[in-house]
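Structure ticket #2291
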Amino acid sequence: MKKASFIAVLWILFCHSSPAQNRLVDSMLAWIQAHPKVDSQYILTLHRISYRGIDEDLQRSFSYYEKVSYYSDSLNFVYGKALAQINLGILFSFSGNYDASNQAYFKAMAYADTCQNLRLQAVSLNNIGDNFKQLKDFGKCREYATEAILINRKLNSSRGVAINFELIAACNLEDHQLDSAKLHLDKGFASARLSDDSSLFALYYLDYGIWWAAKMQMDSASACLNRSIAIARRVGDLENEFKAYLASVTYLPSLSNDAKLGMLHKAMAIARDPHNLSRISEAAHQLYIAYDKKGMKDSSQYWFTEYHNAVDSLVSLNNRRGVAIKETEWMVKRKEIENSHLKELATLQEHDLRIKNGLLLAVLLCMLLGIIIAVVVYRSARNKKKSAESELRQNIAETQMQALRSQMNPHFIFNSLNSIDAFIQSNDKYNATVYLNKFAKLIRNVLDGSKQNLVSFSKDMETLKLYIELEMQRSEQKFKANIQVDDDLMNSDYKVPPLIVQPFVENAIIHGLRNKDGNDGLLTMQVRKNGQRIVYVISDNGVGRAAAAGMNTNKDKSYGLDISYDRIRLFNKESEASVHIEDLQEKGRASGTRVTVELNIV
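Resolution: structure written out below.
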């Protein structure tokens, strides 16, 4: 479920290989029971148990993280404190909270610096880089991975260097920088040879296969991907074996349909044991397409159903994980509060002791000290109350934003599924498949966005363009779209709430352009930066609001518009949402609608 490079780092550095995950955890639990004395080895074992359980039970994994943190603090075991923060970073990363994850890794680096442990610094740097890779911030990913390389070279760790180079190469492949990707693959592969780690060879041959395919050298691509599969099977590396099968189907067009089906069924076997919903959805989707091309309708329908069931289950799982990670974040905050209270209590006890000792010297001095302490405690309590009230107001605003976003996604997904159903009902298999492929990418973006309050501007525009393409196909090209976005915005690191303007685009298409006669509809969207705001201008040459209102019943009113008004208002922290709607006219007749939305830059 996690990325190959990320898994490789954690597997190699913390949990030395074993094919029986559950048996290993059971053996560590048995060791804990047989060795109740809390020492460094006891803490390290708790750490490994916490890591091993992340993918299965976040709450249980967090409980072991708490033990590692508590015992490390009790013994002032700085190495254990660093491990605890790395565990916490992994927990947050598995649930998509990359900002909190990076904060934990930075704390781990501070502890690692205190105990002069370069290895843990290198691990933290690589994991921070991997978080930025998931956020599509390839520049920062390369930056942190490069820092990790420098440290691993000081340690003469060829294995660590190979992992770091592979992360940079994977960024470059995804960023379409093929020459740079090849350079880093070659450097990293040389280090992998020195480490003689077979799991790294499987990972590198997989990357080489994708690189050769991008260069249209299919024989070389096929040889590398087959090599990756063979190595992964030999060492029991299910993650890379699964990815190599899907890469072969995706990047090797010369494969026969039967060969593709064979590889996809092998990939599905890996996905089902253990039950990995993300892999199952990917494999089922490819099987559906392959059987459909072969004309086997029953099999195609079966895998289509499997794919949708997996996607539904994955959405449910992500929702449960989202709840779990919110609880985890609260538990972290609670622990920090409890530690703060303990320190305050210790301070007060120390003051009491001093007061008692002072009583032996002079009663007047004790009274004076008592007055000073009372004033300090009063002021501290008053300041804490103000701080708590401010934090509560902030949390309420964030909770409202999350609630509005959670309403948005089901509304958006429901409309898109209706479009797919329309193609299926009309037996238009080609357009259904094309639409489904675009929808699959769109739903992945929506799921990624549902994990975060904010997403990058460029990512949100990519999702919005996908939606517009789907609506154009759904309406049989009844309208065209002209989208103009400032390059400065696309290349920036600005953040916006996910799908914040999508309901206005949807409203223009459904109520304006679809009700227009003929096929000359035009949707225009201009996005520019104006001072400290991002300005969206969405125009259509449809029938206008008055005519659209007469054509639609009350139940057709866009539910997403009301939500978007509230989201914009909350995001901009203003009493009224910065949305302006004007009716366009030409020669005294309605000629469309223009909507202007302004968002604060963050």
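Closing remark: DSSP finds 23 helices and seven strands in the chain.
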